[in-house]
Amino acid sequence: MNFSELFKLSGLLGRFSPDGKCLASCIQHRLVVRDASSLQILQLYICLDQIQYIEWSSDSLFILCAMYKRGIVQVWSLEQPDWHCKIDEGSAGLVASCWSPDGRHILNTTEFHLRITVWSLCTKSVSYIKYPKACQQGMAFTKDGRYMAVAERRDCKDFISIFVCNNWQLLRHFDTETQDLFGIEWAPNGCVLAVWDTCLEYKVLLYSLDGRLLSSYRAYEWPLGIKSIAWSPSSQFLAIGSFDEKVRILNHVTWKKITELDHPATISSKKTIVYKEVEKSPTVDTERLTFPPTRALASSLFSTQSKYEISQVPVSLQYIKPVADRANPKVGVGMLAFSADNCFLATKNDNIPNAVWIWDIRKLKLSVVLEQLCTIQGFQWDPCQPRLAVCTGSSRVYLWSPAGCVVVQVPGEGDFQITSISWHSSGDSMLLLSKDNFCVCYLEREEV
Questions:
Q1: Which of 137, 217, 273, 415 would give a disulfide with 204, using CB separation of 3.0 to 4.6 Å?
Q2: Of the candidates 67, 100, 130, which is a domain's last residue?
Q3: Using a CB cutoff of 8 Å and minimum separation of 24, what contacts does 392-395 make?
Q4: Which InterPro entries match (predicted)?
């Protein structure tokens, strides 16, 4: 495993291109595009203001930079560095911007969610979508890029509009049986749209492409409801993370619950492996030490190192009791992710912030728990094999696969606190992001 040097970064804005050839990163108002393998700078673009969001087009030929404070989006071309495009939303303002699946249209959401403006890079034409709902996840594209669903709010009622992406024609418009719609997400096969309600109302609705209600699911009635949702890559399962610290999995045939995955504070099953991260202070051979030691030698000698040990069950995990009288309590399953081969599901229960739970979906059983020293900041599956990367805001990366578990210390001076991880599309490297820096970790094929 090899690591690049640290590079400057702002706003956690680092992205691999979809084709895996380039890596874009931002430093204030500058956009730097590098070769993903050598990290040599290919292009340097200067924007009008500090960049707050970047996104590659699906064909990796263009990159969008949004400056929400100024209401401006700038688009840069990798093939023609002299060409560029500026979209100014003016007094309407800007709160969100994204590419359409064809990589030739940009969708801008104006302030107060008054409308979504569809800008064409080819014809310079403009289309408008009215009444978009101000919610966490109100727009979703099918994986094949043919259709777009938009959540709308009119006359105090929720609606869904489905558009055909090649001409932006309205295909279907229907109301939903939600009190206050919170999010929408297509199944990977593009046949079913999942719609879920606000956390005050436990309700998941499943609609077909023509707007028919296929099924609705409700686990319980009065307490706080849904916190997170994830489709399996095969579209066979829909996992629902709830505030009651459970994950419920629905099947794609009857849309009924097939199992309920609990997250107790004590792991007692002997079939579950618990990997516990422990810190070790290195022993220093003072006879061989020259004073004052070099900076690199000192950092390697005196910094604590960590490794995984297998704990004997039963194991009690660190449980934090939520503060009941505050908004957004740290309770319930807030993170869900299926592995690319559909075999595993990784979850995080916010009451137990230092643990990652890995479930075997074939057996519908808990397989592994990773107990970390620090709070889990994020995790992401390798896109090519069942391998999970975890970060905890420290200078270490944690990798799990069915073969085992490893802790990797990122070399280098200074405090590099990794808060986000992004895999390369080949699974051969990872982008490690901190508040002010990033580096690339290169893995070898046979590594765990």
A1: 217
A2: 130
A3: 392/354, 392/418, 393/417, 393/418, 393/419, 394/418
A4: Centrosome-WD_assoc, Quino_amine_DH_bsu, WD40/YVTN_repeat-like_dom_sf, WD40_rpt
